[in-house]
Amino acid sequence: MRWLVVAGLSFGSATLSAAELAPFTASYAADMKKIPVNGEAIHTLEQNADGTWNLSFSAGMFVARLSENSTLRLEEDRVVPLSYHYERKGLGRSRETSQVFDWENQLVKGEHKGETFTLATEPGLLDKTTYQLALQRDLMAGRTEMIYRVVDGDEIDEYEFRVVGDDRVTTRAGQFDAVEVERIRDADSKRQTTLWFAKDWNYLLVRLSQVETDGQHYRIMLKEATLDGKPVVGTPVAE
Predict the structure, then answer these.
(1) 161 by DSSP, 3-state: which?
(2) Each residue's pLDDT tens digit, 179-232
(3) How many whole angstroms separate alpha carbon 191 and alpha carbon 186?
């Protein structure tokens, strides 16, 4: 589950001036419309003793579970991935991917579906969790159209997003003024991804909706969160 041109177009990670990363923990309720079961998802960012950061996402539903973990650093206001690990278990679709970013030698080395691979790095290259952090920072900087080069599995793909508009999102933590963002895909693609980020809370993700190629529709909605040690609280919902 994951975690989407004029002025405002951004290549690679964000360049938000003098903006430090803020640790957060967010829990979400997850559901799939065609399957009568609910699940949960957890998204966290925490700093390590050496100044690097861990960004993780985990989700579980029915008998399936997935986890993603990245180690990264902030370098000249840019999000720089150092390592990435993905694991999915359950429903007969287990899969594992690992990536190590060797910036000194300009290589990405890893393993995907049991096969090793090596790719050349390029400026602004991200993994499948750090691009989400870069997206939040680009939204904070006021950008409306974003393109990221992302190591996806054992190849490099291009992820493109644009701001659709503003919205009011109701969650268990209250109502939030949010910016609605959609991922731009090929014209013949049946997949649809829409995300909502809370403008007053460092553009924390508060809602996500995704439709897969088989028509399956799943959603996650914020339950509770803390940002830099403070509870994330929206406007109380009227009875």
Answers:
(1) strand
(2) 999 999 988 888 889 999 999 999 999 999 988 777 777 888 999 999 999 999
(3) 9
**In one letter, which amino acid is 82?**
L
Cα–Cα distance for residue pair 196/148, rounded to 1 Å:
18
Instruction: Please state, in angstroms and rounded to a whole number, the distance separating the CA atoms of residues 239 and 237.
Output: 6
- The whole-model pTM stands at 0.86
User: Structure tokens of 14?
Assistant: 């964000």
- Residue 142 phi/psi, 5-degree rounding, is 90, 10
CB 14 within 8 A of CB 134: yes
For the segment 131-182, what is each residue's pLDDT rounded down to a tens digit?
999 999 999 999 999 999 999 999 999 999 999 999 999 999 999 999 999 9
91-138 confidence digits (pLDDT tens): 667 789 999 999 999 999 999 999 999 999 999 999 999 999 999 999
Exposure of 31 by Cβ count < 10 A (0-12 exposed, 13-18 middle, 19+ buried)?
Answer: middle
Q: Mention every residue, 6+ apart, whose C-beta is less than 8 A from residue 127.
A: 70, 81, 84, 99, 101, 150, 151
The secondary structure of the chain in percent helix, strand, coil, rounded to multiples of 5, reads 5, 60, 35
Other beta carbons less than 10 A from residue 162's beta carbon:
18
